[in-house]
Design brief:
It is built from 5 helices and no strands. It is mainly α and 167 residues long. The protein has a domain of 100 residues. The longest helix has 65 residues. The mean pLDDT is 88.
Length: 167
């Protein structure tokens, strides 16, 4: 004997969802079908309206959470891109200045006497900067990101308010 596929309310709901999806028509058709289903289940118009309102709020909350999550991911990507850009700018400056210092040391003394001191000292700072960029899991990086994210959210809110008042 074949196993019965109707074992719970979830099974009924899944089958009905498929049937509704397959027979979907216009919004008016869907509203009529919703009303007919509610009538068949013995639900009052007030119960149906309350359920529909609750569904709208839940759907809106879900979309809001989804949007916040998307914005957070975008901000994380932008935050990391900026951190890497800042590091490469720092590294480029380090190389350029130290090349100049080595050239000056060579030209003025005929050899390398003192230029390696700034190279080593500044190099430690560059190495620390590099490790901070690589280690994005640190609590300090997370704090920096939260600050960046709040700033981005305020900026978006201000832009939205400006758009609202333009209309």
């Amino acid at each position: 004997m074949a196993e019965e596929h109707l074992q719970s309310d979830d099974d009924l709901e899944a089958i009905l969802k498929i049937a509704v999806r397959e027979g979907a028509g216009t919004t008016a058709d869907l509203r009529d079908r919703l009303q007919m289903a509610a009538d068949e289940l013995g639900l009052s118009p007030e119960q149906l309206a309350a359920a529909e309102e609750k569904y709208k709020k839940e759907k809106s909350t879900f979309r809001l959470k989804e949007r916040r999550s998307e914005l957070r991911e975008q901000d994380w990507e932008q935050f990391n891109k900026k951190r890497k850009s800042d590091f490469f700018s720092h590294f480029t400056t380090y190389l350029t200045v130290n090349a100049f210092l080595f050239a000056m040391d060579w030209i003025t003394g005929g050899g390398i006497d003192w230029a390696y001191f700034p190279l080593m000292g500044w190099g430690i700072g560059v190495a620390i900067h590099m490790f901070s960029v690589i280690n994005s899991e640190s609590s300090e990086t997370q704090k920096e990101f939260e600050k960046f994210h709040r700033k981005q959210m305020r900026k978006r809110k201000e832009e939205a308010e400006e758009e609202y008042w333009k209309e």
